[in-house]
Amino acid sequence: MRQKNMLIPTLRHVGAEAEMASHRLMLRAGMIRQLAAGVYTYLPLAYRTLRKVEQVVREEMDRIGAQELLLPAMNPAELWKESGRWETYGPELVKLQDRHEREFLLGPTHEEVITDLVRNEVNSYKKLPMALYQIQTKFRDERRPRSGLLRGREFLMKDAYSFHADQETLDETYQDMYEAYRRIFTRLGLDFRAVEADSGAIGGSENHEFMVLSESGEDTLALCGSCDYAANIETAEVGALTEAAAPTATDVPGVEKVSTPRASTIDEVTRMLGKKPEELVKSLLFTVDGEPVLVLVRGDHEANEVKVKHVLDAEQCELADDDTVRRVTGSPAGFAGPVGLKQPVKVVADHAVKGMREAVVGANEADAHLVHVRPARDFQVDLYADVRTAQEGDACPRCGGTLRFSRGIEVGHVFKLGTRYSEAMNATFLDREGKERPYIMGCYGIGISRVVAAIVEQCHDENGIIWPSGAAPYQVHLIAVNPKDPDQSRLAEELYAQLTADGIEVLFDDRQERAGVKFKDADLLGIPLRITVGKMASDGRVEYKFRRSGKSGDLSAEELPLKLP
Ligand code: ATP
Ligand code: MG
Ligand code: MG
Ligand code: MG
């Protein structure tokens, strides 16, 4: 493609609000522009890279026999009411109404829609297992969408779902997906780890996150120096947990609603309900210097605030006048320093949920709690971590080696869902004996647009992006230093024609710009191999330079195709 006519509006500077390297560099390289917070336009270069990433993902999904389809982004509320998530998903859910005032949402993920499709179209064990996937725009009204493509409110995801008659085939598909993910991120040149992510209340089901190692990541990983043990030490967000509190669980047999006067302390509530404090789901348990600090919260999660009703060890909590926990002094295990609970709220893990068969939760109405509630059956806890899991320097739980901490960006997530959705939505098949049974399910996501940004986070220097060739928008950046010079122009045109005919993706800088500008732009855009047609053109020679290694030299134009990566 000829650069003269291309839409690549490079910038020398961008505003200070772009904090992440990927955000800054992609703006500067003329790859993305923000339309609204967390909503971006992909300009031609970014779109090429996005499609490269998509293609790698698609090939690896197809290779393990997953079938591609495309589900609607606009989902009727009814389906999400069936699963319970219309109420529980929380403020990230983008809801809307049509002209008849029917309720809809823009899908942040598609378990409901795919489960609905499969329950209608697949009724026999003979069709199972089946894995389906799509590459589609997702919508999540994220609280702080300030990191460019790393956290969009509209973003591109590959989401796959598998349906099974038995646990064994789920285990197999999960393993296939896990390996496909490893191949995908390896092909894209990323330094990543697959880490164990504790699923707590999901019922002991297995899940792994794929993390790109990067200082700018939001997650903290515990990595063993001696074996391949790797785990995420973080966290459910407060929002996720609270929005998850049983919405309509009273129509489940055994669940009871109990009225509890508003001003109760944790002791009073638990005594009244005949439960132990740990069984309260909306409680936070930190371990500070080996001592538990239990905080019962009255959460106002819209306002992103956590208010305390009762603290077991008040000395370790610094409270504001309005009872808001300002910070927990000391260092709750697993966190680097004192934790401020008001902002950001990322610190929360509900220790009490782990392994718990029944819990006490808020009834989503004033002055009432629900008892005999089963986590995962009656409400969803998306992510869960035990805050005591690890501290830097701890012994590795697998081999006894030493754990070190590292930061990571979550680019993929594979999850054994079990029957969470099929049971809630009455999605069944007929087994070999002709008996109706709920599908056993798995789900598998990759943030395609986040992957693009994660690559830039990992692959850049002070001059710009350094694309790994698997994700580069073009493989060769051909620069005619002075297109007005007849020798240079002729040789550059010849090379452009020849390389293009050989199927090599070439960006041809044929602009009338100073050489310095062209080279600066070339470093910024980060295409793997630069070929410069300059003064030596009259001898039929060109210069080459690899963006990553900086290795450079000159050679005769005839030798060129042999030197390509
Ligand atoms: P995070 O913890 O970063 O909020 P998540 O756990 O909510 O991500 P999943 O529900 O597991 O995300 O979605 C699957 C994948 O989609 C994630 O692994 C990530 O790569 C990507 N993803 C999630 N949220 C966003 C977002 N706001 N912008 C871009 N990619 C995202
Ligand atoms: Mg999220
Ligand atoms: Mg996550
Ligand atoms: Mg996730």
Overall 3D form: elongated
Bound molecules: adenosine-5'-triphosphate, magnesium ion
Number of strands: 32
Q: Helix proportion of residues, in percent?
A: 10-25%
| Mean pLDDT rating | 80
Strand content: 25-35%
Q: In angstroms, what separates the terminal alpha carbons? A: 19 Å
Radius of gyration of CA atoms, rounded to a whole number: 27 Å
What is the number of helices?
13
Structural class: alpha+beta
What composes the largest sheet? 9 strands, mixed
Low-confidence stretches: 199-204, 235-248, 283-314, 328-355, 380-389
Query: Which assembly state applies to the chains in this document?
Result: single chain
Describe the SSE topology.
Elements: H1 21-28, E1 32-36, E2 39-42, H2 44-63, E3 67-68, E4 74-76, H3 77-83, H4 85-88, E5 94-97, E6 103-106, H5 111-121, E7 130-139, E8 154-164, H6 167-187, E9 192-196, E10 207-213, E11 219-224, E12 230-232, H7 238-243, E13 256-259, H8 266-273, E14 283-288, E15 291-300, E16 305-311, E17 317-319, E18 325-328, E19 339-340, E20 359-362, E21 368-373, E22 403-418, H9 420-424, E23 428-430, E24 436-438, E25 440-447, H10 448-458, E26 460-461, E27 464-465, E28 476-480, H11 486-501, E29 506-509, H12 515-525, E30 529-533, E31 541-546, E32 552-556, H13 560-563
Parallel strand pairs: 3-7, 28-29, 28-30
Antiparallel strand pairs: 1-2, 4-6, 5-6, 7-8, 8-25, 9-10, 10-22, 11-12, 11-22, 13-21, 14-15, 15-16, 17-18, 18-19, 20-21, 22-25, 23-24, 26-27, 30-31, 31-32
Helix pairs in contact: 1-10, 2-6, 2-10
This protein binds adenosine-5'-triphosphate and magnesium ion (3 copies).
